[in-house]
């Protein structure tokens, strides 16, 4: 099971988390987020040795040009679209050679049929629908995924903590990875390294 630690921003905290070799580390380039990482800050962060940890750039309804600018600056390996981006945005980014994670916010009104339009994405990510686009710290009803017939590898997100590392992968078809954020934090953007160690099992 792949593990993603998202919402990172502080240099020393990033270095500490990298000691435990997460598969993915997410950086949020959305200014309204309490975990926002600015351009100057990211230029310092990319000087660190990420080893085999892939960096994920998280965007919310961002312009195609800005995403490409950040890609050219080497800010991320994979782009995560966490807003209401149209399918054509995914297709344009793919045409530029980028890997794409498309996020879907799951609530009582979740419509499985909307996945079909985003079939060009490399991965899906299912998060809890809330007031904010991510980092709400709440789980959604996972049973929705069992009836969704998801035919693409996906990340499970939304209120995951150190007690969720033993999720049975066979419980969900095509479950690829777990995405951890707010439940591992001491404060927004600053992870509790002890909890990270529990999650990554090293």
UniProtKB/TrEMBL annotation:
Q: Per the UniProt entry, what is one GO biological process? A: L-tryptophan biosynthetic process
| Alphabetical list of InterPro entries matching this protein | Aldolase_TIM, PRAI_dom, RibuloseP-bd_barrel, TrpF_fam
Q: What's the Enzyme Commission number for this chain?
A: 5.3.1.24
**Pfam families assigned to the protein according to its UniProt record, in alphabetical order:** PRAI (PF00697)
Q: List the CDD domains hit by this protein, alphabetically.
A: PRAI
Keyword entries, A-Z: Amino-acid biosynthesis, Aromatic amino acid biosynthesis, Isomerase, Tryptophan biosynthesis
**Superkingdom to which the source organism belongs:** Bacteria
HAMAP family with a match to the protein in the record: PRAI
Q: Which family does it belong to?
A: Belongs to the TrpF family.
PANTHER family linked to this entry: N-(5'-PHOSPHORIBOSYL)ANTHRANILATE ISOMERASE
Can you say what this protein is called?
A: N-(5'-phosphoribosyl)anthranilate isomerase
The organism of origin for this protein: Marivirga arenosa
Lineage, highest ranks first: Bacteria, Pseudomonadati, Bacteroidota, Cytophagia, Cytophagales
